């Protein structure tokens, strides 16, 4: 059933998506900035619909921002998101498809809110689904690629009003799609909107991640209502099966930026029940793998590995972590469509190789 969601529910979605983003997906601070703009325009509400309400011949698309988090934080508004979306509507109409819905390409404190922002401004219904059930660092390491969902056409726009349409000769060439989109973003100062993946109900169910926006709302409410860490931990386990994997203080963060990505390792020394132990989390924008003090890998993508500030009880992206911070590490099993195909792990192996790991998928336990 469709549901009109307002400001509080959108806030909960931002918090929940930040947790489910597994260290990436954009800062919730930027997501809240979008919500503040909607509130100032008296448009902080969206009609959320189940994928089951979509007719067989109705279509949805995702829209996101591509660029640098620092630039996002400095931007006052994001008009390019609407331009990219309305251009996609025009392009799709040329092939006889009417875009009736928006959806999220991934979960994250910013990237889930971007299409919600467009939906609110345009008065478009929003499908309770996303493309990954988590955040992902690049095109190709995503459920769209795993499920052979075509990239083409792609529309992009800048905040000065420029726009372009990209048609790929191979609609499944995610590497070319990634290169084009990143180069366009760089040409406009690391700030450009990106719209693609025209999908219907069957594709959402068979290939993507249905029900995740409601899931984020539930998770966000758990963060908001928790009186303490223990209550939050129990709620996260009950609601999304998230397990506490470790608790400690960040002792070091190794970080380098390369090719538009943040690569790094977060080292955490155990406290309380974990005293005398340590873990490290390798990340490429999002958290990729968890190692213990012996170097053994304890969890890998596509499962979620997420840090939570143990004092403020807020989910942390890898842009928010700092040395000395007291954190808890949580893990959760990836959305079902990641686990139905060997490619659901294989698409990550080139990234894991950067962290000197060439082994198999290690599920969260």
Task: Give a verbal description of the structure.
With 365 residues, the protein is an alpha+beta fold. 33% of the residues lie in helices and 29% in strands. It contains 12 helices and 17 strands. Strands 1, 2, 3, 4, 5, 6, 7, 8 and 9 form a 9-stranded mixed sheet that branches. Strands 14-13-12-11-10-17-15-16 form an 8-stranded antiparallel sheet. The longest helix is centred in the first third of the chain and has 16 residues, at 79-94. The mean pLDDT is 96.
CATH architecture of the largest domain: 3-Layer(aba) Sandwich
Helix coverage percent of residues? Answer: 25-40%
Write the H/E string, N to C. Answer: EHHEEHHEHEHEEHEHEHHEEEEEEEEHH
Structural class per helix/strand content? alpha+beta
Proportion of residues in extended strands: 25-35%
Overall CATH class of the largest domain:
Alpha Beta
The number of domains? 2
